[in-house]
Amino acid sequence: MSGDVLAVDIGGTKFAAGLVDATGRLRAVHRTPTRPGGNAEELWSDLTALLDRVLAAGGNPDIIGVGVGSGGPMRWPSGEVSPLNIAGWRDFPLRERLADRHPGIPVRVHNDAVAVAIAEHWLGAGRGVSHMLGMVVSTGVGGGLVLGGRLLDGATGNAGHIGHLVVDPCGPPCVCGGLGCLEAVARGPALARWAHERGWRANGAATGRDLTDDARAGHPVARAALARGGEAVGVAIASVMALCDLELVVIGGGISQAGDLLFGPLRAALDRHTGLEFTEAVRVVPAGLGQESGLVGAAALLHQGARYWSAG
Amino acid sequence: MSGDVLAVDIGGTKFAAGLVDATGRLRAVHRTPTRPGGNAEELWSDLTALLDRVLAAGGNPDIIGVGVGSGGPMRWPSGEVSPLNIAGWRDFPLRERLADRHPGIPVRVHNDAVAVAIAEHWLGAGRGVSHMLGMVVSTGVGGGLVLGGRLLDGATGNAGHIGHLVVDPCGPPCVCGGLGCLEAVARGPALARWAHERGWRANGAATGRDLTDDARAGHPVARAALARGGEAVGVAIASVMALCDLELVVIGGGISQAGDLLFGPLRAALDRHTGLEFTEAVRVVPAGLGQESGLVGAAALLHQGARYWSAG
How many domains does chain B fold into? Predict the structure, then answer.
């Protein structure tokens, strides 16, 4: 299909949108902060204003579809979303609302980490690969699996939740209700809190971004926290490699920008926890696209639907 | 395809073979113990004698193909096998040898735990399900994933190695070279050794079978060992559920015959380690087929090749 897709990224910090053509080129990108404490209709109103702004900036083109990456959980493919970090939307019928507003064209909603994974597969570090895990290590930890060249959706559209692999059975409780999940250990706020409890930035709120900054500047506790995160990610990846027989793992998200401070301990953990011959050739690399990759992936749900949209 | 498949199961304890028709009915089954210390040609000679016996017992039918489930690792789909428990075969060209002996018909070799998984999907507890994990907990721990109704082979035919998910980063070393793998904790010999170190059957060699017998009779250390195994299996399944968004997990193999002594702690661990809504509906059940399911699955590589054989 040629023509533009209206691509949308729904996150707890910001909403972003833009126009993406069939080659993956992104234009007319705008953002708006997610209204703190906003109710369902306030959030919807902010979103529609943003989309109008994007369409106007793009010259009001005919769009061929709307693609959305949203924080989970959600019902899929029906697209009622309940993003953990957006309290005002619980079972909010985002797909249906967008379809009412943009009649006659398909509207497809998927998980935001899945969007990043398929963007990396379409145009980023995973281009041409058949079996890959794409993951995001940021405020949360999520991902998507491309197997045999196609996105794995699973029974309910929720495949790829690598953040909820158990990396330490005696580990901390997770927001999902489980114990010892990767996300409970390695998401930015968990690493920041772990460092905080050990004396890092004892007198102020601090974020995963602060943590990576201080680690780069040499702060030993900040470095230890990133090492802790990297080890946990490495354990999880070792498990996925054994289970899914991958060629490639692509890691994006804010915490991944710590570079070797994360990837060093990650690779050491991989070495410790993998031994099977077929895991040895798997490459583990940083994301190839920038922070707008979620929009590119949301558009890929339409532009590359044969590979990334199984719901018909 | 109608007609019989000559089905073969290559294990460290025994070789088994039989004829399987297009409905999955198995007949003319024979077995021979795996010759201890046998070299490559001795093992091959034992196998061919077994196959001749099966074909004669079956009335020398025209067979439409040969399907093999073999202990891993192996090269796939070329079928050079190096079963961990059969030292005499290292990169043994099993597929090629069988193809020379049975010219003009396809010969397909896959992992023995994969064979059990696809048998359960074809005719057992997984019939009609689209997304399932089939696993075997026995002398080793292995499995196969059926996703979207088809076997996942992965990049090199090695997908499904659930025995090498990391269930405890500080756990025991595994034969694969990793640390804390499910198999290192939960395979029968590991559980027996764990119990032995705690005073169970202190003066004799003992097997996983002895362990389940004694646990059923109420021996507290034997029960604790099975609970340890069940918990580790539960942790691994929790991770696979999050990653692959399954409908069903089917568990077979000798240790699984301990029933609630294994499944009770397994379900408790699943409860502790899963919280996401989409994992709650996943059923975890014992295998529906008997101990010959590996032969049925080996035949399914041919009778149901569209679903279970992707290599062309």
Answer: 2
